[in-house]
Design a protein that fits this description.
By secondary structure, the chain is α+β, with helices and mostly antiparallel strands. Helices cover 47% and strands 11% of the residues. The protein is built from 24 helices and 16 strands.
Length: 638
């Protein structure tokens, strides 16, 4: 039996069958049955973005890089909006994975183990699962293996062309998987310092970096022109880091149940960008009259008027000049001799420009917000002073009391019935004031609250961010909206090149706020995720994991398979170390992935780009168990 397996693995023709096996499994997952619930369109926004590109529209986000979206757009452009076409295309591309791995591993581990690794990849690769849905992983893996193969060929053959190809591919890979952006820099820096050093080595590294830079530069320039920021990949890292800080302590496996997820939305309308403010609106009540925006700031008391520019349909867009940080902007609209808000100059809307993402931006107490709720609660429970007492005396009876607190909360919950009191009780819990709401939600107010995140929330009205992220102008309380507004659907800085960079900054601030509160728990969670990244672990919790038919069985099977292959991978490392295998260099990208993303929200999917490299170490373990020889001892073929 062992000799039969040896002859089979030593045959070059048998290895050439591995792409066909991968292709067959991938096509089965596409057209017959797939072990995932997402269908051809996947779970990301790639499909809609690609259709926009196919219609000639610009790429309308910085939240994901361009690579996979343009791949889809090419298919939609030439084959129409048939979702199966790009998915089938990537199944064919993914079929190259085992062959590329064989070519990459063979010089370092020998023909036999490289062939075994190719067959393990052909049958068990998780990339084949993701190739059957719109996901960037499978194509990214092929590009990544190609870049490694070119790099190794450049080194062994001293080929400048191979280094140029490796650099170009290394510049493309992060446009499919942003977390891979630093790996080429680390590798090329180590290669530059690795002996033997010389002018030739410097030239190779320079060509690599130039080629990589050429591929990255158009995207960086595009993002800079839109946002004024250097963004080599995407703006998505901020929210991923925040998610990672939510998965700590008792919420290690699910951020969905962490009460601090309530702070996803800001307490105030604001921007942290010192850039022109883009406002858009549509005429209300079917009016076709031109709209003007009138604004002023607390720094400049003069009112300024801006005429709108028609964008799409009847929508008008306005551009307010960039304002310095720490600016409060007030504005209203004019059309047909009427204003919106109806109070106009006396009751304008408010917008802030500040990089204090979590603080109380309403220094003039012109808005009703969670900080006012907190001050009222402290006043009722402990008798603390209430700044701007006359403004939060909402029933105008000359004092701030429980009735004002109830009305304030009701005003921030527009769907709450007017006849029902939202507050059940206010009491003390140590040095904290506790507001108990009618749905049993609780808002805990500490003695000092400088940030929105200083509040502690528990329950639906608080946990879902309904209360802690609501605000409205004080003027709007006694100035109800008209039945027919002058303008409708007002949006401020909602265009992607304003919204997404600002959100990146806000989520990063939220993340560091969480880390500051419990750094040890965050470090422990990050250490746990370094290993957890390689293991599939689903749950039956609908808030944590997507549920679908057979999901429980599939998750369990995935967990068992991932545990087995991870254990075999660790054993393979030991075997390679004892044999002093040159393939140990593959540990650099394998270790790089968990080291650089363990701080953010992660799952096993983030490691499948390097999974084929791990399968080579798995093959070493299997070969040792079957007595097929160690790395470098098997038959070598050229």
């Amino acid at each position: 039996m062992r000799h039969t397996v040896e002859r089979w693995l030593d045959s070059p023709r048998v290895t050439l069958l591995t792409p066909l096996v991968t292709l067959a499994i991938g096509l089965f997952f596409v057209f017959v049955w797939a072990p995932h619930p997402w269908g051809w369109r996947g779970i990301d926004q790639y499909d809609a973005l690609a259709k926009e590109l196919a219609l000639g529209q610009p790429f309308s986000t910085t939240d994901v890089p361009w690579g996979y979206t343009y791949y889809l757009a090419i298919f939609y452009k030439f084959f129409g909006e048939h979702t199966w076409a790009p998915v089938t295309g990537q199944v064919f591309i993914n079929a190259l994975t085992p062959l590329l791995l064989f070519m990459l591993a063979k010089p370092a581990v020998g023909h036999r183990i490289a062939a075994l690794a190719a067959w393990i990849t052909a049958i068990f690769s998780f990339n084949t699962v993701y190739a059957s849905t719109q996901s960037s992983d499978a194509i990214c893996t092929v590009l990544f293996l190609l870049s490694l193969l070119c790099f190794v060929r450049g080194h062994t053959r001293s080929s400048l062309a191979a280094f140029a190809a490796a650099g170009a591919l290394s510049g493309i890979v992060p446009q499919f998987r942003p977390n891979m952006i630093l790996l080429p820099v680390i590798v090329i820096a180590g290669y530059l310092l690795y002996p033997p050093r010389g002018i030739r080595r410097v030239m190779q590294c320079a060509i690599f970096m130039i080629a990589m830079g050429v591929m990255l530069t158009p995207w960086i320039v595009r993002n800079y022109r839109y946002t004024g920021a250097i963004l080599p990949t995407s703006t998505h890292g901020g929210i991923q880091l925040w998610y990672g800080t939510l998965q700590t302590g008792p919420y290690l496996e699910s951020r969905a149940h962490n009460p601090r997820s309530a702070f996803a939305s800001a307490a105030f309308p604001y921007t942290s960008l010192e850039a022109p403010i883009i406002v858009s609106a549509e005429p209300g009540c079917g009016s076709r009259a031109p709209i003007r925006l009138v604004y002023r700031t607390y720094r400049d008391k003069a009112w300024h008027a801006i005429d709108g520019v028609r964008t799409t349909g009847i929508r008008s867009q306005f551009e307010i000049p960039a304002q310095p940080l720490g600016t409060t902007l007030t504005y209203f609209f004019e059309a047909d001799g009427r204003t919106s808000p109806a109070g106009g100059i006396l009751a304008p809307d408010i917008y802030f420009v500040s990089n204090d993402h979590l603080g109380d931006l309403d220094t003039e107490h012109a808005m009703l917000d969670i900080f006012d709720i907190g001050r009222l609660a402290r006043h009722i429970a402990f008798g603390d002073a209430v700044p701007a007492d006359d403004k939060v005396d909402l029933n105008r009876d000359g004092r701030s009391d429980a009735e004002d607190l109830s009305r304030a909360i009701a005003l921030l919950l527009p769907q709450w019935p007017e006849t029902r009191n939202p507050v059940v009780a206010v009491h003390r819990d140590g040095d904290r004031a506790v507001v108990v709401l009618a749905d049993k939600s609780r808002l805990l107010v500490p003695p000092s609250f400088q940030r929105q995140t200083d509040f502690i929330v528990d329950g639906e009205l608080t946990l879902d961010g309904v209360l802690v992220s609501r605000s409205r102008t004080m003027a709007s309380i006694d100035d109800p909206p008209p039945r027919c507004a002058v303008v409708d659907d007002v949006k401020v800085n909602d265009v992607f090149y304003r919204r997404e960079p600002h959100e990146m900054a806000r989520y990063t601030a939220l993340a560091f706020d969480n880390i500051r509160r419990d750094p040890i728990a965050f470090l422990a969670a990050s250490a746990y995720r370094m290993v957890r990244l390689f293991i599939i672990r689903g749950t039956d919790d609908v808030k944590t994991t997507h549920q679908f038919p057979l999901s429980h069985a599939i998750f369990q099977a995935g967990m068992v398979a991932s545990l087995i292959y991870f254990g075999a991978f660790i054993a393979g490392i030991v075997i390679a170390w004892r044999a002093r295998s040159p393939f140990l260099y593959a540990l650099i990208p394998i270790v790089y992935v968990p080291l650089t993303i363990c701080f953010v929200l992660t799952n096993m999917r983030y490691t499948i780009t390097v999974q084929p490299l791990m399968f080579v170490f798995v093959a070493m373990t299997v070969a040792a168990l079957m007595g097929l020889g160690g790395p470098g001892t098997a038959t070598s073929r050229t």
